[in-house]
Amino acid sequence: MTDILFVKPVLPRAGALVLPLAEGFVLEGLAKQADEATGGAIARGLEAAGFKGKKGQSATLWAPGGHLSRVVAVGLGATGGGTQAAEAAGGTALPLIASDVEATIAAESLPAPESAAFAAGLRLRAYRFDKYRTKESAEDKPKLTRVTIAVPDVPAAQAAHAPLSAIADGVCLTRDLVSEPPNILYPAEMADRCRALEKLGVSVEVLGPAELEKLGFGALLGVAMGSAREARMVVMQWRGAGDAQPVAFIGKGVTFDTGGISIKPAGGMEDMKFDMAGAGTVIGLMAALAGRRAKVNAVGLVGLVENMPSSTAQRPGDVVTSHSGQTIEIINTDAEGRLVLADVIWYGQHRFKPRFMVNLATLTGAIIVALGHEHAGLFSNDDTLSRQLAEAGKAVGEKLWRMPLDEAYDKGLKSEIADMKNVGGRPGGSITAAQFIQRFVDTKDGHTPWAHLDIAGTAWATKDSAIVPKGATAFGVRLLDRLVADHYEG
Ligand code: BES
Ligand code: MN
Ligand code: ZN
């Protein structure tokens, strides 16, 4: 899908006509014109299909007359479903029109924010990662190239769509990064791709092993030790609010997680290319914020490593000294994400003194046991930030569920030789991981609101949903963009 154009309503001569319709609809505008031009075939067809305009409902009427290839009706649900319903309807419509070259959306009766949201839904669902498929037949490829959205007020729809388009760009960037195979996307390559944000006005600093060594990033560098691919940390800054205190987002970027010496079983190990999804989300989020010129100062920090077993790899039993000065006894080299985050969080907090820090990580298998693939785990030291995050998640359909933090879980992290172990045992595995990370949120100079999102269950989808095709979801980009828009801008 190339372009989405907003236009004044004109009945199309060819292609698909899409009708977003709410419950209790009456055909108006283009829908009514098309119905009249086909001798009432559309009203009769919708009736025969049992189409009522319900949320998630759709109906396709093939060649209803004239030169239209099809009319696709998609339900908006009860009126007042707002932008979320419109976005979902756009997503639902996309696969039903993808084999047409052109489509016209009859959005004359939608308010501008909803026609813009419908367009964003189309775009989000149309995402494909097909750069490595060289033998796909033309038939199997989507043909849709021209989408026009018929609206009463073109400038209003365009204005509403501009920020959504920037957010969709960010989502697609994240999906691209997370989808890339791990031989192509390793830490240095991922850092290079961050540089692409410079053209949006984001400043990008890349630190390599020598600089990280100098900073004393012993926890992060310990994870990288087994790999021939060098570690990186990338610091991205978007300044949209003068010299206001920034907000900070921190991502786990393990470009491949074999487990290291505590190696993972072979079955399904290929999935661990997605272990950089936290970092990928931070990068896409920075692109979204900069792309829509958000009135906020935002810092994105990502720790990029590959976790490999080799003769130079970190061992169980090793003790590393983190950037914070705290020492860590490595018990399981597969609990590597928290080691990466430990150094980056401490660094981000001390350098930027942010209003809040949110980190994202595909941190534990245990969060999938707890929450499945429907909610990401939310751990936080701050009730206000937690509420804001949970509400933003609800608003964009990226749901969070708050999990406990409690000193009582610290027992398992006690080490005989160092300040802590890197694992706390099987019970409450996601919580002990969060307790570990919290030790790298400094409380000496007062309270910094911090939240950790464990996205291990939500960063990848095995089936399509309205605006998320299966594969990399970019879970968190829209959520955190919304958090900023609702509470930290202007
Ligand atoms: N990247 C994994 C977490 C993960 C596992 C994500 C499965 C998605 C699916 C993480 O680095 C890891 O290996 N965690 C271990 C921690 C354990 C060793 C304490 C886990 O969850 O098994
Ligand atoms: Mn691991
Ligand atoms: Zn991992």
How would you describe this structure to a colleague?
With 490 residues, the chain is of the alpha/beta class. Helix content is 34%, strand content 21%. The protein is built from 14 helices and 19 strands. The protein is elongated and about 85 Å long. It binds ligand BES, manganese (II) ion and zinc ion (ZN).
Beta percentage is 15-25%
- Looking at the structure, the CATH topology of the largest domain is Aminopeptidase
Q: Over the alpha carbons, how many angstroms does the gyration radius reach?
A: 24 Å
Which regions have little confidence, pLDDT < 50, spanning 5+ residues? Answer: none
Distance between the termini: 34 Å
Secondary structure class reads alpha/beta
In CATH terms, what is the architecture of the largest domain?
3-Layer(aba) Sandwich
Q: What is the mean pLDDT?
A: 97
- DSSP E strands, number: 19
Tell me the count of domains.
Answer: 2
Helix content estimate: 25-40%
How would a crystallographer describe the biggest sheet?
Answer: 8 strands, mixed
Strands of the widest sheet, in order across it, are: 7-8-10-9-13-17-14-15
Overall outline: elongated
The CATH class of the largest domain turns out to be Alpha Beta
CATH superfamily of the largest domain: Zn peptidases
Number of separate helices: 14
Bound molecules: ligand BES, manganese (II) ion, zinc ion
